[in-house]
Design a protein that fits this description.
Elements lengths: L1 E5 L5 E6 L3 H6 L7 E7 L3 H13 L3 E7 L8 H13 L7 E6 L1 H13 L5 E6 L2 H7 L4 E6 L2 E8 L4 E5 L8 H17 L3 H8 L1 H4 L24 H21 L14 H10 L6 H18 L5 H13 L11 H8 L11 E5 L5 E5 L3 H11 L2
Parallel strand pairs: 2-9, 3-4, 3-5, 5-6, 6-9
Antiparallel strand pairs: 1-2, 7-8, 10-11
Helix pairs in contact: 4-5, 5-6, 5-9, 6-7, 6-9, 6-11, 10-11, 10-13, 11-12, 11-14
Bound molecules: nicotinamide-adenine-dinucleotide, ligand LNCXM5UN and zinc ion.
């Protein structure tokens, strides 16, 4: 078991290990009399088990089953959760628990951030992506009709529990989507992550690139190999450590934290343009190649470094290209990125692997040239 502390103003621990059920329930503070479990249908069995364990501790479990994936990150679903909390008389000493992938932990965190202007949330991530990224660091939020994650709050969890046994039921392409955020941590900070992924691509990868990009089903339906858990635990701990170091220095994204957004300017634009039929990690994978191409165009990455992006992402079955002919829609979506200031688009690019910097207001011809380079 590994514990990583987020040393922010209100420090909290992220625990990575196996068989954490008892520890999760034991961690709930004595003052709590009710806990809202936010989950989607895929996690019903786990929600049942958590409810029973909470009840055995004398805490009343209240359930909010929400729509799966991005369909749960909406204002309507937020209102549903507030209604459940209101009808159950939740007070400031009570608590929310997010049990699921990143969509659920983003929603649950935002529900907790807004109820009575902020109550505690314990995050229990069940996908690789949620363990290494979404449930840690305190960014919470939902989508609007106009774009991805446009409404939200910084609201840090009380604790986060990454039980890697949960990954054994995860379809292979959801594991691979999570690997995009792991690899991002390698490109922006801990280059040792890249070496580990390159050495274990066979164990971690999925069968084919494009089948994994779209939707939440119909892809490589093999599950995670139990033999992959030790290497996954190492990667989770390393990526969470990257995030902890950044978030401790800049919780509210005044500047440094933007590096965690590597690949997301173009990636979020793909997700929005595709009406969320692409997995987040798959879109971020293409977004990182786009950012690498931009960096090459301004002379900050070598051909070999850009090739390394394509090679490592492609080796585990992540997409590295996107459809041609969509520039206008993508550009419109990128203008709503949170790093934009006025009319100035701002990108995180690398000046060499492991050295993230900003590219502000690049010439539009460069943006189109980078798009051409990732188009198929
Ligand atoms: N807040 C942040 O800092 C942050 C960081 C990264 C990503 N995100 C957000 O996270 C979301 C993506 O998260 P995701 O990749 O986990 O996708 P997801 O939440 O949509 O989950 C993917 C699928 O896996 C299923 N699932 C979850 N756990 C499972 C398990 N153990 N076994 C079998 N199936 C399981 C879900 O029901 C869903 O169908 C996006 O909305 C993204 O914007 C947020
Ligand atoms: O934690 C961060 O900061 C990130 O940017 C992590 C991203 O992986 C994540 O997808 C995040 O939700 C994106 O945030 P946004 O502010 O661009 O919506
Ligand atoms: Zn992300």
């Amino acid at each position: 078991m590994t514990t990583i502390t987020f040393a922010t103003a209100r420090p909290y621990d992220v625990t990575v290990g196996r068989g954490l059920d008892d520890a999760i329930v034991d961690s709930i503070p004595e003052r709590v009399s009710k806990a809202l479990i936010v989950y989607s249908a895929a996690m019903t069995t786990r929600a049942d088990a958590l409810s029973r364990a909470i009840e055995a501790r004398g805490i009343t479990p209240v359930r909010a089953e929400v729509p799966d994936a991005e369909q749960g990150k909406t204002a309507e679903v937020m209102a549903f959760c507030w209604q459940v909390l209101g009808r159950s008389d939740f007070t400031r000493s009570d608590l929310v628990m997010g049990l699921g992938g990143g969509a659920v932990t983003d929603l649950a965190g935002f529900v907790a951030a807004t109820w009575l202007r902020g109550i505690d949330v314990i995050q229990v991530p069940t996908t690789l992506l949620a363990m290494v990224d979404a449930s840690v660091g305190g960014k919470t939020g939902i989508n609007t009709l106009e774009g991805k994650n446009l409404v939200g709050a910084f609201h840090e969890p009380l604790s986060v529990w990454c039980d890697t046994e949960r990954l054994l039921t995860l379809p292979r392409h959801d594991l691979v989507a999570g690997m995009a955020e792991v690899i991002k941590g390698g490109f922006i900070a801990d280059t040792g992550i890249l070496d580990i992924v390159e050495a274990n691509a066979g164990l971690l990868g999925a069968s084919s690139e494009q089948s994994g990009a779209r939707g939440h089903s119909g892809a490589d339906m093999r599950f995670v190999d139990p033999g992959a858990l030790p290497v996954l635990e190492e990667l989770i701990a390393r990526k969470v450590t990257v995030k902890a170091n950044v978030v401790a220095a800049d919780l509210k994204e005044s500047f440094l934290r933007e590096i965690l957004n590597y690949g997301h300017t173009f990636g979020h634009a793909i997700e929005y343009t595709e009406r969320y039929q692409w997995r987040h990690g798959a879109a971020v994978s293409v977004g990182m190649v786009y950012a690498a191409e931009l960096a090459r165009l301004v002379g900050k990455l070598s051909d070999a470094e850009v090739d390394r992006h394509r090679a490592i992402l492609g080796s585990i079955g992540l997409p590295t290209t996107y459809q041609a002919g969509r520039w206008d829609a993508l550009y419109a979506a990128m203008k709503r990125d949170k790093k934009t200031r006025g009319d100035l688009l701002r990108f995180v690019i690398l000046h060499g692997i492991g050295n993230p910097q900003r590219l502000e207001g690049p010439d539009p011809s460069l943006l189109v040239a980078a798009y051409d380079a990732v188009s198929r």
